[in-house]
User: What shape does this take?
Amino acid sequence: MRFLFKTDYAQDIRLAKHGGHVFWYSALLLLLFVAPWLFAEYWLAQLTLVLIYSVAGLGLMLLAGFTGLFSMGHAAFLGVGAYTHAVMTNAGIPFPIAIVCAAGLAAAVGLVVGLPALRVKGIYLGIATLSFGFIVEEVLARWESVTGGNAGIHIAKPNLFGWVLESGTEFYFLCLVITVTATLGILNLLRAPTGRAFVAIRDSEISAQSMGIHLAYYKTLSFAISAALAGVAGALYAHNLQFISPDQFNILQSIDLLLMIVIGGVGSVHGAFLGAIFLIAMPQVIAQVKDFLPATVGQAPGLQGLVYGLVLITFVLFEPMGLYGRWLKIRTYLQMFPFYRKGMFKRQKSFQKSDRLK
Amino acid sequence: MTDILLSAKDLSVRFGGVLAVNRVSFDVQQGEVFTLIGPNGAGKTTVFNLISRIYTPTSGEITYLGPKGRLNLTQQAPQAVASLGIARTFQNIELFEHASVLHNLLIGRHTHRSSSLLQDLFFTSKVREAELKAREKAEEVIDFLDLQHHRDALVAGLPYGVRKVVELARALCTEPRLLLLDEPSSGLNVEETDDMAFWIQDIQHELGVTVLMVEHDMSLVSKVSDRVLAMNQGEMLAMGTPREVQTDPGVVEAYLGSIDDVSSLRRKVNGYVDAPSPGHTRV
Assistant: This one.
């Protein structure tokens, strides 16, 4: 069991709180760094996809997990980023400029979508963002002169001012750098006043406001940052597939993103990564298990959807804190062995809220 | 007058057909504890919500002596009220449930933030310094209200009495000039209420903060308040020292009903018009 002896306030704002953090996160970074030499090409591609989804997941986690605004149309931001990036890259614009523009445009669109969020909340915000997702998908399909319509467009390899990233390994490192940067940025935000304001809005709008937090500003800001990260992820996604079409950014993609953060654990940065691993690993696991199942079940269409649905229901019922919540419990069990008791993570039901801002 | 911190003049607010607050006027002097009392539905919390700009009055105005001179509070944006030095607590506790006590107090420092979004994103040395400073301020409040024990606890797991104190602590973290307390003793036991009275006096005398509160517990009211305003059904009944207000016939009537009311009740219950015989007990 670890006891933290605190002697300095600075200890509480450090990213790595103790030696264990430093050791394990360094080990993880090292592993990710040597991954291209450890794993076969196929698995490296899967790992790249995990990183890409993690970036999008981080954005959605900031919005849904930390600001409490659920977006059911997040694939739209992914699409805006992907198409902006593809069009600019094909026009010969270097990767860094193109991806910044992709993030910027996605953020601008996020700002526009953030505006209804000031008035509606909960399920109504879900409906508003859902319909926004449909609108974007439709625009991508109809605006043929730019997006190529339903036929989709191919995208050239990433070009960093003349250095063309041809191999999967190079692209993997690009994704790794972007993911680590995005993660550090989000972690910094969350330990600074901006992140605290987001959390305040999530937990009680009325008292956030009476503490001087400008609700409209922080809600739109959260939407913009979240959309920008989705835009970056979209740009990487486009490079990864080398071909994009509107149906990759439909409602199913949005639901995948939402599923990812709910299963990973709403309200934790770790959850975005665990959810991304789940989302990418699950189809593989299903494919492996399929062969052992009777043909009527194993070959049935919609098996993946069924499994996702069951997993989601199971998590919502038994582990609302997701994979990360489960991990916390396991870790506490190990740390406190043999003193862990069953109700340790039980929380009192919250008291009645006084009248909320309508 | 310069020593009036907050002044409400002919304040009225109407929700549809209900006149929740009707032509209420009062002045809060700097450094005093001013209490609003009255039966349920008297409009006390509504007055609070008018001051913290959750509602806008139908008519009347509230002037407030801010850090930069006197201003009309009703023209301020709701989130601007905190930076003018007005902090509040809520009747049913509105804390940030899924954050630690310390985190809650740090959110109370929001109006004192000095960093921009970009600085936050890179967590520059300026942000670091500001964070340490905010922490020191929060620790002062923790010391003041004896919350050391609960510093790192999640609010969602704390008992009601402690939450009440955490909410007071969060309000103090904003370094207010005027503190609005909405029923600080509701849900507290006798001992906790005594602590609350002690802290309110400390806040007034040591921190020099003006307190405006709504309270039902008359022992607490008479212990800490300098002046009391009694309200009933949105209207002012009486204003003065706690003793004066408590003995005011109008206030007694509002709480207990008039003599006529009581006798009419008796007639109904017992079924005869004459006064009941001594020693008669209601069945």
User: Anything to note?
Assistant: Strands of chain A lie at 153-154, 159-160, 163-164, 243-244.
